[in-house]
TrEMBL record:
<feature type="signal peptide">
    <location>
        <begin position="1"/>
        <end position="28"/>
    </location>
</feature>
<keyword id="KW-0732">Signal</keyword>
<feature type="region of interest" description="Disordered">
    <location>
        <begin position="27"/>
        <end position="64"/>
    </location>
</feature>
<feature type="compositionally biased region" description="Low complexity">
    <location>
        <begin position="47"/>
        <end position="56"/>
    </location>
</feature>
<protein>
    <recommendedName>
        <fullName>PknH-like protein</fullName>
    </recommendedName>
</protein>
Length: 267
């Protein structure tokens, strides 16, 4: 019995020695280091770092600003708020026609709430109104809820020069933006500064309306075109009046008097 007990004790000792040896070998080998988490505990964005056998989790890309649908333009069949008949009554010497392809309406696009562009840069070397508003940037940055723009063409008379018939044209390019009162005041300041900078504009009373008037190179003749900035409590707009023959002061005043209430009401 003593011999059997000693044998069992020896067997147990050998077994423990083997286990200890295995444990010792495992401890001597470099154990794999668990991946270091990335992210922040504060915002709950902790994720496991990729290992050699784990592909990184793709991060969803943000929608580029230039792909956002900030505004939407719709071609309207009619002439909008400024038909040729209104201008005809104001300046009967010109045979005013209809708008070119109708008025264009701009409304907020499906992504308008995610768009916050700055006001567009002014380029005085371009044709008035220099930034071609209402562009998407101006429409969205100004906070406008609706915009309309168009152009009405007219013919004064046909003249003969060097045996060729010359068509004497007049044009009235117009635009109107509807805004909240606070946004209208900010947009008015922006447009006034633009006409002052690019067309030496100044405040004037024209057609019974307080407006800002500037002059710019004509696209029809060697002379100036007239740029008129219109402002109101809930809207802003402008007129660019041009032609092969300049309108007289009285014609210009009557035209502004007829167009201004339709584009930018004062109440």
């Amino acid at each position: 019995m003593v011999t059997r007990g000693r044998g069992r004790a020896a067997w147990v000792a050998v077994t423990l020695a083997v286990v200890a040896g295995v444990a010792g070998c495992t401890g001597a080998t470099d154990a794999p280091v668990p991946p270091v988490p990335t992210g922040s505990l504060r915002d709950g964005s902790v994720t496991a770092a990729p290992t050699a056998t784990t592909e990184p989790t793709p991060v969803p890309s943000l929608t580029p600003v230039d792909t956002l649908r900030c505004a939407r333009e719709v071609q309207r069949p009619g002439p909008g708020p400024l038909p040729g008949s209104v201008l005809q009554d104001a300046v009967p010497a010109v045979r005013w026609g209809g708008g070119l392809s109708g008025a264009v309406e701009t409304v907020p696009g499906p992504d308008a709430g995610r768009c916050a562009p700055g006001l567009p840069a002014v380029r005085c070397a371009d044709r008035p109104p220099w930034l071609y508003p209402p562009t998407t940037d101006l429409f969205t940055a100004s906070g406008a809820t609706r915009a309309l723009r168009g152009q009405v063409m007219g013919q004064v008379r046909r003249t003969t020069s060097a045996g060729a018939t010359v068509l004497d044209l007049q044009s009235a390019t117009w635009a109107s933006l509807t805004l909240a009162p606070a946004d209208a005041a900010r947009a008015a300041t922006y447009l006034r500064s633009t006409v002052e900078r690019c067309a030496d504009g100044s405040p004037q009373t024209l057609g019974g309306r307080r407006v800002d008037v500037g002059i710019a190179p004509s696209q029809y003749r060697q002379g100036p075109a007239t740029v008129v900035v219109l402002t109101g409590p809930a809207a802003v707009g402008w007129l660019v009046l041009d032609g092969t023959t300049a309108l007289s002061t009285s014609e210009l005043a009557r035209l502004v008097a007829a167009a201004a209430p339709r584009l930018v009401p004062t109440r």
